[in-house]
Amino acid sequence: MEQKVTYQYSMAFKRQVVEELESGRFSSVNQAKEHYGIAGCGTINRWLRRLGRNQLCLKVVRVEKPNEKDQVRQLKKQVKDLERLLGCKEAEKALNDSFLEIACEELGVDVEEFKKKGSGRVWIKPSKNQSSK
Predict the structure, then answer these.
(1) How far apart are CA 70 and CA 9, in angstroms?
(2) Who contacts 33 (Cβ-Cβ below 8 Å, separation ≥6)?
(3) Three-class SS of residue 43?
(4) Is residue 127 classed as helix, strand or coil in its secondary structure?
(5) Domain edges within the chain
(6) What DSSP string runs through 69-125?
(7) Which of 2, 103, 130, 132 is buried most, with the most CB atoms less than 10 Å from its CB?
(8) What is the residue-wise DSSP string for 3-41?
(9) Is the Cβ–Cβ distance between 44 and 16 less than 8 Å?
(10) 70-85 pLDDT, tens per residue?
(11) HSE of 94, CA atoms in CB hemisphere, 13 A
(12) Is 18 exposed, middle or buried (CB count within 10 Å of its CB: 0-12, 13-18, 19+)?
């Protein structure tokens, strides 16, 4: 089994690499990476973000049409509304399940048995007290 080697660079070394990049000794991060034999893809970029002035870090600029911003906003609102509605439905289901348990308990019927027989339709003979009404 091959052992993995983990390199830990000192803070002084990290600062030196960042300073050399910022001073212009290396024209790119890849050039510094190759010169010092640093294997990680984002290692030097992390050092630049933490220790440098961030002028050499790549920046992502997202260009959107005006209607795309509105679409994102509408979709986020729709997700929020659907999550709220789902919460209401879950609360309603829990309440209905509780009512079903109470009703089955009062009728003396097992809840699972009630659900199995006729998709919830159970014919219960009225007691003598109810038939006289």
Answers:
(1) 46
(2) 43, 44
(3) helix
(4) coil
(5) 11-51, 66-123
(6) HHHHHHHHHHHHHHHHHHHHHHHHHHHHHHHHHHHHHHHT--HHHHHHGGGG----P
(7) 103
(8) PP------HHHHHHHHHHHHHTSSSSHHHHHHHHT---S
(9) no
(10) 888 889 999 999 999 9
(11) 6
(12) buried
At position 1, the amino acid (one-letter code) is M
Average pLDDT for residues 89-93, to the nearest whole number?
94
How far out from the chain centre does Cα 26 lie? Answer: 39
Q: Give pLDDT, residue 133.
A: 46
Torsion 47-52-57-61 (CA) sign: positive
Residue 43's Cβ-count burial label (10 Å; 0-12, 13-18, 19+) is middle
Query: 90: which 2 tokens?
Result: 């879950």
Cα(15)–Cα(9) distance, integer angstroms: 10
